[in-house]
Design a protein that fits this description.
Layout: E1 4-9, H1 15-24, E2 37-39, E3 45-50, H2 55-60, E4 66-70, H3 71-77, E5 81-86, E6 92-99, E7 114-117, H4 120-129, E8 135-138, E9 154-159, H5 163-167, E10 170-179, E11 181-186, H6 193-209, E12 211-219, H7 223-229, E13 237-240, E14 246-254, H8 258-267, E15 271-277
The structure holds adenosine monophosphate.
The site of adenosine monophosphate (AMP) has 15 residues, from helix 3 and strand 9.
Length: about 280
C-alpha cells in the first residue's frame, strides 16, 4: 500500500515549531540535509519536507494527503482545502498599513490607491467585499519597502509583533486576516486511516499544550472549595494521604488560568502545589 504522504514545512518560520509538534506527537524520523521524502519509523507514512508556500498545491494535486501550513497561505491559494485543526503556533495577522506621514486614517481612504502585497487574492477579496476599489501590486518579500520606493501607497503584509512595520515607518490601518499554522487536507480526498490517526495524534498534542496537570495537598475540609476552582474534565481526583485530615488533589487547568488559580488555591489551604506539562490529551 502507498504510504500516507504528509507535507511539512522545511525552512522558514513554521519549520521548527512543526518539527517539535511532530516529535511530540510521536513521529520518529531522521531528516537528512537534502532529502525531500523521509519515512516515519514503524508507520506507513512519509514526510515530504517542502516550503510552506508549496503545501496547498501539493495537497490539492494529491501529491500529499495531509499538510501543515499557514492559514494565510490556505486563504491565498483559494483551493478546496479543509482545515482540520489549528495548531497554536505561527500566529500572525495580515495587516493593511500606510507610511506614518500619510493622510490615510481609515480603510475607506485607500480607494483608488496602490496596495503592495504578497497576498493579492485575500487583499483583493477584502477590499472588494467593502466595495473599495484599489490597485493591488503583487510582490514577494520586502513588501514594507514598497511605499519608500513609490511602488505603492500602502501595503498589506504579515505581522506578528508589528515591530518590522514600525521600523519601516509604517502605521497599521486595519487587519485583513488572522492566521496561524493549520493542519490541512484536500476536501475531496478519500478517507485514509493513516490520515485519521495522524490528525488524532496531532490534535492531542495541541489540546495538551493548552492545559497543565496540577497536583496539591490540602485539608480534607477544603475539597469543596478547591473543586470549584479546578473542576477538571469531570471532577478532580481526590486521593487519601497517610494523614487522615489531608488529601492529595489532581486536576487539569487551562494554561491561561494557572496564574490566577494558584494564589486562590493557596488561599483555600492547598500546599505542595505541582504544575506539570501534559504530553498528549484525548478527550
Ligand atoms: P516562511 O516564508 O516559510 O517563513 O513562512 C511564512 C509563513 O509563516 C506565513 O505564511 C505565515 O503563515 C507564518 N508567519 C508567522 N508569523 C509571521 C510573520 N511575522 N511574518 C511572516 N510570516 C509569518
Amino acid at each position: 500500500m502507498n504510504p500516507m504522504r504528509f507535507a511539512v514545512p522545511k525552512k522558514g518560520r513554521l519549520e521548527e515549531p512543526s518539527t517539535r509538534l511532530l516529535q511530540q506527537a510521536g513521529f520518529q524520523y531522521e531528516r537528512g540535509e537534502r532529502t525531500l521524502a523521509v519515512p516515519v519509523r514503524g508507520r506507513n507514512v512519509e514526510l515530504l519536507l517542502v516550503r510552506a508556500d508549496d503545501i496547498c498545491e501539493l495537497v490539492t494535486d494529491g501529491v500529499a494527503d495531509l499538510g501543515i501550513t499557514g492559514f494565510d497561505l490556505v486563504a491565498e491559494s483559494g483551493a478546496n482545502i479543509e482545515v482540520l485543526a489549528e495548531l497554536g503556533f505561527g500566529q500572525c495577522r495580515l495587516t493593511a498599513a500606510v507610511p506614518n506621514a500619510s493622510d490615510i486614517a481609515a480603510i475607506e481612504d485607500l480607494a483608488g490607491m496602490r496596495v503592495a502585497t504578497s497576498h493579492p487574492r485575500v487583499t483583493g477579496e477584502f477590499f472588494a467585499e467593502k466595495d473599495i476599489s484599489i490597485q493591488t501590486v503583487p510582490l514577494r518579500g520586502s513588501i514594507e519597502v514598497a511605499p519608500k520606493l513609490d511602488v505603492a501607497d500602502a501595503i498589506v503584509d504579515l505581522v506578528s509583533s508589528g515591530s518590522t512595520m514600525m521600523l519601516n515607518g509604517l502605521r497599521p490601518v486595519a487587519d485583513v486576516l488572522s492566521s496561524q499554522a493549520v493542519l490541512v487536507r484536500d476536501r475531496a480526498a478519500e478517507q485514509m486511516d493513516e490520515v485519521d490517526a495522524a490528525v488524532t495524534l496531532i490534535a492531542s498534542v495541541v489540546a495538551a499544550r493548552r492545559r497543565k496537570y496540577i497536583l496539591m495537598n490540602a485539608p480534607q475540609s477544603a475539597v469543596g472549595e478547591i473543586r470549584d476552582l479546578i473542576p477538571g474534565f469531570d471532577a478532580p481526583s481526590v486521593v487519601p494521604l497517610a494523614d487522615p485530615t489531608m488529601v492529595a488533589i489532581h486536576s487539569v487547568v487551562d494554561v491561561d488560568a494557572v496564574w490566577d488559580v494558584i494564589p486562590q488555591l493557596q488561599a483555600a489551604g492547598a500546599s505542595g502545589i505541582l504544575v506539570l506539562p501534559i504530553e498528549q490529551l484525548l478527550l
